[in-house]
Design goal:
The complex is a heterodimer. Chain A is an alpha/beta fold. Helices cover 30% and strands 21% of the residues of chain A. Chain A has 14 helices and 17 strands. By secondary structure, chain B is of the alpha/beta class. Chain B folds into two domains: 226 residues, 2-enoyl-CoA Hydratase, Chain A, domain 1; 210 residues, Rossmann fold, CATH 3.40.50. Chain B is built from 21 helices and 20 strands. Chain B has a seven-stranded mixed sheet with strand order 1-4-19-14-16-17-18, sandwiched between helices. A six-stranded mixed sheet of chain B has the order 7-6-5-10-11-12, with helices on both faces. In chain B, strands 13-20-15 form a three-stranded parallel sheet. In chain B, helix 3 links the parallel strand 5 and strand 6. Classes of the chains: A alpha/beta, B alpha/beta.
């Protein structure tokens, strides 16, 4: 038996959390409400459950050493994630897909006791299926078979009942999901490899022409790592960041932001630097004629996407990096003929075989990037309510990433 | 006979004294020994203004009488000061209306058909049709608006003309219509000694390219004060430009001066010295203060903005600008100059609700700074009322409020520029060009009612001399976060402010309070 946090099916709790957290009560109060709701009403429970069974010989058991709490996890716990994803998960599952751990079984090229990070995507290879067209070209995040094969439905580890997840003392992972990390890479950096790989993936999803003006909306983990990836993998010109909190502003500048704007004055400030014009509708937020060439939406909220759509120039690109929630006025998308691009998880380069996969790049970058202090709140599983509450209020509390240490009592 | 200006030394018998603080006022008890500078009593206004206008036009200084300068087929451009003058706005008919009507009558008699009227708004916001009508009067407005009565557009490249550069390399670029006229008639109101004379055309009809030569930190820091033209680098620059202008275009100027009847009868106590308040004045003070304090902010602002002054006209002189202006300055000094013996450790100013750039608008924090550390601090001749390194104490609530239509670039200046630095030189070096050439601000200046993008910079430079001179600046009653953004300290009361000032000027400082408005200019000996 292992200790695990288990997310179970409970339509009542789902609707209750969704109903309360979608109330418009102001951003500060909203963080408090969400924190209370997610900690007390969400269908998450601490249980002792059977160890997950290895579905095949290429699978190993992994003991999570640190497991991060991601924005998508919080979306799930606060009921704000879209019902669209419900057929792609299997219940009950153990959340946690940002994992650094050590293997408990031997594989031919990966001895027991190896320190690994997890690529959570469960593609055709892990499901023992003939590769779909996407998996054939290494673009496993687009796999069409995430509900089929020898394991239950689940777009990722952390949403699949068969594999277990990072918020537990054991999960199982297919060899294709595992990326060894150097022993000297600190755990608190290693646990950031997965979100960093996602950020790298997102900046490589689109062409970022040299010198182009980029806006990053949000300066949580996704936003900060996106700025880092933009500086590392593109020739972007000025990178402007919309950040709510002082520590986020400082960190954004540290990883290469040109300037950081408070949300309330983002439109005016971006107008100034891009020399567009500011328009004020009768109702709703201001928007620009002119603006950034590209915007990365990194908040996962409707407000963030709304901001991005309003502040990109005509013909520009909005890349959706955070898992979306809520509804947004798409008029700017139509009127300004914008390109809206999604970016989900990571891949191994797609048709460009010369490119190293996102995870390999992320492991290398995590070793040298200024990421100290990003993981400054680590909780045992038993304190999951505190951990989730802290993660929801992370920005306000000066934290970037909250993680579980499942090895602690 | 009006009594001259007067310096009161506060003693045990001195009553509490009136201090303006934005859209409000209070009675304040000052420490014993505080010197309070009052303006001369309001001068009597000219009884027959129309006759005096006729006299001035027919007996000008240094140039032929106006009728002799007018001839059929000529291009005549009448230029007038914009709504930044006078403050508060004067009771109608505005003196500009009266002068313009006389000029137009003479032009009509001379058979002049090609007449244009231009508001000399430089980089100020355009005047609305209603504001133009109020200034020139209904008759003129109906006859000339909109085709022949316009605001100057400092960004209309096709309608600007570069007349040359001065010996100091200063570009002189002004409105094409005016520059290519056979005669410019300039109708002026000189409220303070900085206005009028060489400033009228060279500034009022200029472009940014021309204005930047004197509206900059260096010049403002060397204008001591900018209300004392002989000692003002800014006016030296105006003079050079005006000399160049004179070679290209004939200017006939009519300068007028006003007395100190600043407030209407229902708040007449604001025009008086406190110990001379009658029982009725005291009752009126209590009633007005109570009503004002209780009024909702929007209503309060409307009430103040609707206040019109029953000014009397103290002088009308016409002719060549260089000949007329000394007479005008003498009139201003007659009304405003009060001799003060020496500087103090602390200077105190109560800032009223109005400055040249918030007529029918909002006095935003940058305008408060410009009014206090610019206009009021510079109301001196010879030396500031406070010594170098002394403390300036200003009264104003300084709310974080901006007019989104009139002051768009001010909002960004406050949020972006002042968040980084308050040093005028750094601000000028890093940001001025960006704001001055920002196409959105330019668009709003030209097509909406916005001040030019560079205007908040000029307001900040306006206070550059005071910022350099003062050891500390404390605002009484100001919004703390806003004042802090501007780099100033905040006190709740005068006693707190004086306590805070101890760090800079010690425990027994000398204090001078400049009691204005009505305007007073300290002649510091």
């Amino acid at each position: 038996m292992i200790l695990a946090l288990e997310y179970h099916r409970s339509p009542t709790k789902y609707l209750a959390t969704r109903g309360i957290t979608t109330l418009n009560v102001g951003s500060r109060l909203s963080s408090l409400v969400n924190s209370a709701v997610a900690s007390n009403l969400s269908p998450l429970r601490l249980v002792n459950r059977e160890e997950p069974i290895r579905p095949g010989p290429e699978w190993v058991r992994v003991r999570p050493l640190l497991s991060g709490i991601c924005g998508s996890d919080l979306g799930l716990l606060t009921g704000r994630s879209s019902p669209y994803l419900t057929p792609l998960v299997s219940m009950p599952f153990v959340p946690g897909h940002e994992v650094v751990g050590e293997t408990l079984d031997d594989l031919p090229d990966l001895p027991k006791g190896s320190r690994v990070v997890l690529d959570p995507v469960l593609g055709c290879e892990a499901r023992d299926l003939e590769p779909c067209p996407w998996c054939t070209t290494g673009r496993t995040s687009r796999c069409d078979h995430v509900t089929a094969g020898r394991i239950q439905a689940g777009l990722q580890t952390g949403f699949c009942a068969s594999t277990g997840g990072g918020w537990s003392r054991m999960l199982v992972a297919h060899r294709s999901q595992l990326h060894p990390v150097p022993e000297d890479l600190p755990l608190k950096r290693a646990v950031l490899v997965e979100p960093l790989a996602c950020a790298i993936h997102s900046v490589r999803r689109i062409d970022v022409p040299a010198g182009s003006t980029v806006l990053v909306v949000g300066a949580g983990t996704v936003g900060l790592l996106t700025v880092l990836a933009l500086r590392e993998f593109t020739q972007a010109g000025p990178v402007y960041v919309v950040a709510k909190h002082k520590h986020q502003r400082e960190r954004a500048l540290q990883v290469g932001a040109t300037e950081v704007f408070e949300p309330s004055r983002a439109a005016r400030a971006l107008r100034r630097v891009t020399r567009g014009s500011l328009q004020k509708p009768v109702f709703g937020q201001e928007f620009l004629l002119g603006g950034a060439d590209i915007a990365f939406e990194c908040t996962g909220g409707a407000g963030g996407l709304d901001t991005a759509l309003r502040l990109v120039r005509a013909g520009g690109t909005v890349l959706l990096s955070g898992m979306p929630s809520g509804t947004v006025d798409l008029t700017p998308l139509w009127y300004r003929e914008l390109k809206l691009i999604g970016s989900y998880a990571t891949d191994a380069g797609g048709p460009d075989s010369s490119r190293r996969d996102d995870f390999t790049e992320a492991v290398a970058l995590a070793a040298q990037a200024p990421l100290d202090g990003y993981v400054d709140a680590v909780y045992p599983l038993s304190r999951w309510r505190d951990a989730v509450g802290h993660a929801i209020a992370a920005g306000r509390l000066g934290t970037v990433k909250v993680a579980f240490d499942p090895t602690r009592d | 006979m009006s009594r001259p200006g007067f310096v009161l030394e506060v003693d045990e018998r001195t009553p509490a004294l009136l201090v303006h603080e934005g859209e409000g006022f209070r009675l304040e008890r000052f420490p014993l020994g505080t010197r309070v500078v009052y303006p001369p009593e309001s001068l009597p206004g000219i009884a027959d203004v129309d006759a005096e206008i006729r006299r001035a036009l027919l007996n000008p200084h240094g140039i032929e009488p106006l009728p002799e300068l007018l001839f059929p087929g000529m291009r005549l451009t009448i230029v007038f000061d914009d709504l930044s003058l006078p403050l508060p706005q004067m009771r109608t008919p505005d003196i500009r209306q009266r002068v313009i009507e006389h000029v137009l009558e003479l032009a009509a008699r001379a058979g002049v058909d090609d007449v244009e009227l231009l508001a000399a708004n430089a980089l100020h916001r355009r005047m609305t049709p209603a504001e133009l009508k109020r200034t020139v009067g209904e008759r003129v407005f109906r006859a000339f608006f909109p085709k022949h009565l316009r605001n100057h557009d400092a960004e209309d490249r096709a309608n600007l003309v570069h007349l040359g550069t001065t010996a100091h390399g200063e570009d002189v670029e002004i409105n094409r219509r005016a520059a290519e006229s056979d005669l410019i008639v300039y109708v002026n109101i000189t409220l303070t000694a900085m206005s009028g004379g060489p400033k009228s055309v060279a500034v009022g009809l200029a472009s940014y390219k021309s204005l930047r030569h004197h509206h900059n930190v260096h010049t403002l820091r060397h204008s001591r004060s900018f209300n004392d033209p002989p000692n003002s680098a800014m006016h030296h620059s105006y003079n050079r430009m005006a000399a160049l202008l004179e070679k290209h275009v004939k200017i006939f100027t009519i300068e007028t001066t006003l007395n100190n009847d600043t407030f209407p009868s229902y708040v007449n106590f604001l025009n008086k010295r406190e110990w001379e308040w009658t029982l009725a004045d005291q009752a009126r003070y209590l009633a007005v203060k109570r009503a004002n304090d209780m009024a909702p902010p929007r209503l309060r602002r409307q009430m103040w903005q609707k206040t019109v002054a029953p000014y009397g006209v103290t002088g009308i002189n016409a002719g060549l600008p260089s000949e007329v202006h000394p007479l005008t300055l003498a009139n201003v000094h007659r009304q405003q100059l009060t001799e003060v013996n020496g500087q103090a450790d602390i200077g105190i100013w109560g800032l009223p609700y109005i400055c040249p750039y918030n007529v029918n608008s909002i006095m935003n924090p940058i305008l408060v700074m410009s009014l206090g550390l610019g206009y009021f601090f510079n109301l001196y001749r010879n030396a500031p009322i406070v010594r170098k390194g002394g403390v300036g104490i200003f009264y104003h609530p300084m709310p974080n409020e901006f007019h989104p239509v009139h002051h768009p670039s001010y909002i960004d200046f406050f949020e972006e520029v002042l968040a980084e630095t308050t040093d005028p030189v750094q601000i000028e070096t890093k940001y001025e060009e960006q704001f001055a050439t920002d196409p959105w601000y330019t668009h709003l200046y030209r097509s909406s009612y916005a001040y030019h993008g560079v205007h908040p910079f000029y307001m900040w430079y306006w206070g550059a001399h005071a910022l350099e001179h003062l050891g500390d600046v404390i605002f009484v009653g100001a919004d703390r976060a806003t004042a802090r953004r501007l780099g100033f300290r905040v006190a709740s009361t005068l006693a707190d402010a004086l306590e805070m000032a101890r760090d800079t000027v010690g425990s027994s400082p000398s204090i001078t309070y400049l009691h204005a408005p009505p305007l007073v200019m300290a002649d510091v000996r």
